[in-house]
Specification:
The protein is about 30% helix and about 15% strand. By secondary structure, the chain is α/β, with parallel strands linked by helices. It starts with a strand and ends with a helix. The protein binds S-adenosylmethionine.
Length: about 290
């Protein structure tokens, strides 16, 4: 899977994708990340990327021309051209100008999404990360100042994503968050294919086909709940002992304890998640017990 990031501050990404799982995923050829300097798509002496807003008001707005040029150089046609070209084989915007970049005018069958990072976007979730991880390519546009000229959104963007209800000074951190969350779910990136299902916001038991015969599974699929607490050695630290349930190797007991903790944590920290969580009869009973104290 390929990630193309367009920004006026490419240096902000130095190091972000060079550690841990994400670095290994690139080394294994499972994902590619490329960062482009928006100023490289300007033509004036000052490499101008912004201008004053129509209608007045504070701040500046990222101009549409450099962004459109960057997208065309990345082989991204406008949404309208993509729709038309999916029925033909022509290159409506001309072939990509950047080496190593595939044309995406909709005719190749490759799945690409152009994402605008924006505080006005839909809130990015783990469920979205799972969907995006099935694509061939994501192009992430990072806004700055008051944001991006809306016509870029209208013409090119498939979705506007926000990483939360707060305002960042630029889309770079948001792009890094989205790329990281999606990348680790690309098939093959996590060592164990199922580990993405057993963590916070993961899939429900019924959606996970990883039970090995004869090996009792000691976790539930998160089913939209938060994860349970984790412990490692030593068994006692600063006077606090690891819960007994985790120490005796009884997988049934471990599983039950973990599920109860998931329910407790979710109830305490994110009760809103319980509305859509996949709960079975035992979960509901446990939840009732926890609520009663
Ligand atoms: N005027 C905009 C508003 O009130 O919605 C805020 C612009 S913000 C200062 C500059 C850029 O940061 C945005 O264009 C966007 O790319 C990025 N940004 C800010 N908050 C974000 C969020 N919660 N999620 C994703 N991107 C965000």
């Amino acid at each position: 899977m390929r990630f193309d990031i367009v920004t006026i501050f490419p240096d902000l990404f130095a190091g972000i994708f060079e550690h841990g799982i994400v670095r290994r995923a690139q080394a294994a050829g499972l994902v590619t990340v490329a960062v482009y300097d928006l100023r490289g798509f300007t033509h004036d002496k000052h490499r101008t990327v912004d201008d004053r807003p129509f209608g007045g008001g504070e701040g500046m707005v990222l101009k549409p021309e450099p962004l459109a040029e960057a997208l065309n150089a990345l082989g991204i046609a406008s949404k309208k051209e993509r729709t038309t070209a999916s029925k033909a084989t022509a290159y409506p915007s001309g072939p990509p100008a950047l080496p190593g970049v595939a044309q995406d005018d909709g005719s190749s069958g490759a799945t690409t999404r152009v994402v605008l990072l924006s505080a006005q976007g839909r809130t990015f979730t783990q469920a979205m990360a799972r969907e995006l991880a099935a694509l061939d390519r994501i192009v992430l546009l990072c806004g700055r100042y008051e944001g991006v000229d809306e016509r870029i959104n209208q013409l090119y963007c498939d979705m506007e994503l926000s990483i939360g209800d707060y305002v960042l000074s630029g889309g770079e951190l948001a792009a890094a968050v989205v790329a990281d969350a999606v990348m680790r779910l690309v098939p093959g990136v996590l060592g164990n294919e199922a580990s993405g299902e057993f963590e916070s916001f993961g899939a429900a038991d019924a959606e996970i086909a990883t039970d090995e015969p004869g090996v009792p599974r000691s976790q539930h699929g998160a089913g939209g709940l938060l994860d349970y607490p984790h412990y490692t050695r030593p068994a006692e630290f600063a006077g606090l002992r690891v819960p007994d349930a985790l120490l005796n190797g009884d997988h049934r007991q471990i599983r039950r304890w973990r599920r109860e903790q998931q329910l407790r944590k979710t109830l305490a920290n994110r009760p809103d998640l319980l509305e859509h969580a996949e709960l079975n009869a035992e979960d509901r009973r446990l939840l009732e017990e926890i609520r009663r104290g």
